[in-house]
Amino acid sequence: MEVFNNIFAINHRCSSFFLGLLLLLASALSLANAKSHYHDFVIQATPVKRLCKTQNSITVNGMFPGPTLEVNNGDTLVVNVVNKARYNVTIHWHGIRQMRTGWADGPEFVTQCPIRPGGSYTYRFTIQGQEGTLWWHAHSSWLRATVYGALIIHPKEGSSYPFSKQPKRETAILLGEWWNANPIDVVRESTRTGGTPNSSDAYTINGQPGDLYNCSSQDTVIVPIDSGETNLLRVVNSALNQPLFFTVANHKLTVVGADASYVKPFTTSVLMLGPGQTTDVLISGDQNPSRYYMAARAYQSAQNAPFDNTTTTAILEYKSSPCAAKNCSSNKPIMPPLPTFNDTATVTAFTSSFKSTDKTFVPTDIDESLFFTVGLGLNPCPPNFNKSSQCQGPNGTRFTASMNNVSFVLPSNFSLLQAHHQRIQGVFTTDFPANPPRKFDYTGNVSRSLFTPVPGTKLYRLKYGSRVQIVLQDTSIVTSENHPIHLHGYDFYIIAQGFGNYNPRTDPSKFNLVDPPLRNTVAVPVNGWAVIRFVADNPGVWLMHCHLDVHITWGLATAFLVENGVGELQSIESPPEDLPLC
């Protein structure tokens, strides 16, 4: 018996040794297949004609939208950005985890000082464990109105998509907004007056407004498809301030991914994406060979707020369609029905359909249970301001916004990450409240005494590895609204959403801890709430903000300071030598 046990022990050790060796070889093979991709981004003014008018728009490499970057899971991106424009600029790689590489995340005065005109900075980071559609965009003022592009992450080399049918072709669909003005002038005028900024003049698909606008039909985007094939559409809402519905006439869309995470497939006729969100859908060429409009229009949840009520279109064109071989401008494509602009029921049905496919690791024992109110506010007109020209909010006020009654103020002399890394005092504090300073009827009639938040650069400190739950609660201060809340440096599980005021006694029964979707941007329902969870495993300073740029301009943001853990692999890397100076 003792001999048998010894033989078993030897065999077990050998098996363990060979298993470990195989894992090491597999890991080495994966690293060997990983590539580094090098790109140059030149930020420059470029003449762009839309809606019958030409204006100098800020672009990357003279392209609008900017270049699409394609990588595989495990690859490294190295992007040298040269600023030849007249504005400060940074580039954010929206949704990239940036594990230990927070210096490459990009938000101005958060992880870096801006790249000044004439300056440059090289972003270096590795994509780890993410597949699907993300995007990149400027993160300085309102430059991202024209400075953006798709970032497509394919499976590792030799792997395929986890779909029952592999797509024949892939097309990025970037939804955007266009102003017949310089977007920087638009936001500066809004800041001067204290009122709402002018609404956009058009929505766009891949930079083009489409057939329903003046001077636009000649350049309407054509998306090819062939009978019998299945294609992958990678839809990104890169609009500045507007959640958008998206649909394709006579075609069903099978949702298979969102924010670079796979989801259990479900079929829908319409998508709704908040700014910052991405959705991957499969579309089949199962209709009569013809031309069909793709269309996008606003989802507007805020009452009595001005918005752009136009519709942008592209054309899904069958290659075997008679129009594919000749100009068929007189043959109008089929137009799809679109939801009404305030159709929250359709939005709720869509967002509640998302479930993760992968095995989830939802944190259960929570270390940090946080409750953040999000919403607008009003500041009284300062005594030295002209009330008629500088206080054009309701009743002679100025618009503001906040989380937990703190209106976020960016520093100007140092970035937050630089101040943290170099232990520079006086740049920020770490006393952002874990709960609202005052409890109130968040979605009811709110006292005017709660309309004015406190300005500050307040961060919330998290220990490395802490398990975090955040309740994000919309408020009806000024107006309730659907807020797309984006967290930099992390994906998170959306474990529940609902309407009204979150109830800590009854609403936990609605938590999905089995297969919740993994996202980087959550659409907090109008007059409602969302609950997210994540593990703070990425050290650095990470911005959390509303992705309606008008709201972050007003201060609807905060940031997490995640401490280093133990050892090098749990600590942020040293700053690169070419990090821009303030």
UniProtKB/TrEMBL annotation:
Residues 1-34 form the signal peptide. Binds 4 Cu cations per monomer. It comes from the Eukaryota. It is found in: Secreted, Extracellular space, Apoplast. The keyword Transferase does not apply. GO terms for molecular function: copper ion binding; hydroquinone:oxygen oxidoreductase activity; oxidoreductase activity. One of its GO terms (biological process) is lignin catabolic process. It catalyses: 4 hydroquinone + O2 = 4 benzosemiquinone + 2 H2O. Residues 43-157, 170-320, 431-564 form the Plastocyanin-like domain. Its cofactor is Cu cation. It is an enzyme of class 1 (oxidoreductase). Pfam families: Cu-oxidase, Cu-oxidase_2, Cu-oxidase_3. SUPFAM superfamilies: Cupredoxins. One of its GO terms (cellular component) is apoplast. Its EC number is 1.10.3.2. Gene3D superfamilies: Cupredoxins - blue copper proteins. Keywords: Apoplast, Copper, Glycoprotein, Lignin degradation, Metal-binding, Oxidoreductase, Repeat, Secreted, Signal. Lignin degradation and detoxification of lignin-derived products. Belongs to the multicopper oxidase family. This is Laccase. The lineage of its organism: Eukaryota, Viridiplantae, Streptophyta, Embryophyta, Tracheophyta.
